[in-house]
Amino acid sequence: MLKELETTGSFQTLQHAVVLEKEKKTNFYNTIDREQEGRKKIKALQKQLHDVRQEKKVELQKVKEKMDEEIRVHVEIENFLRQHQQELEEKLEYWMEKYDKDTEEKQAELNALKTARVNDLTLLQDLAKQYEEYEKVIIEDRLEKEKAQEQKKQEQVELSSAIKIQAWWKGTMVRKGLGPYKKSKSKKGKEKGKKGKKGKGKKGGKKK
Q: Region Disordered: what ranges (predicted)?
């Protein structure tokens, strides 16, 4: 600058130096402003990330509770069907044994009546009347057994209906992605969550 003053009588070098210093100062303050703005954006993104994590945590807790409830209901239905099936098997066994026993008893009585009829013709009429009475008893017993068989068929239909209901419920869980079939849907939810985070970061960290 001194040389310039001595030779040309001007001080452009000083002016140029002042301009450069002002530009450096302006750039410095701009850098500080950008850094502060960046910190604000980072804080906003961190807060948004925290909120998203909390939201996902709550959603996972709700899903877990629902899965536990579905498992509990499934176990209760399974236990009920197993108990009902055992009761039906016991009833069936009882009626089969009763039928065999009654048939043997009635057959023995009929054989005794036939033998007595051969030995005593006079007693034939009385025995015939007794036979008719026994025949009525057999018919009534047969009707009772048929009624029991109808009841057993009805119980089997109810068991089949309960099994169909269980299969329908399981199909509903598979179609809607509930209970143990939630896995694939959870992955999609996570992918959507990641895409949502990237998109919000580009827009300047807007709050949800």
A: 176-208
**Containing structural domain, residue 15:** 2-202
Q: What is the pLDDT of residues 68-81, one digit of tens each?
A: 888 888 889 888 88
- 25 in any annotated domain: yes
Contact criterion met (CB below 8 Å) for 152 and 88: yes
Report the Cα 128 to chain-centroid distance in Å. Answer: 68
Indicate whether 208 belongs to any domain: no
**Distance from C-alpha of 194 to C-alpha of 199, rounded to nearest angstrom:** 9
- Reported as a single tens digit per residue, the pLDDT across 142-188 is 888 888 888 989 989 888 998 999 888 888 888 887 777 776 544 55
How many of the other CB atoms lie within 10 Å of CB of 201?
A: 15
Q: Is residue 101 domain-resident?
A: yes
- Crossing angle of helices 12-119/183-202, nearest 10°? 170
Number of structural domains the chain divides into: 1
Tell me if the pTM is above 0.70.
Answer: no
Count how many residues are written for the chain.
208
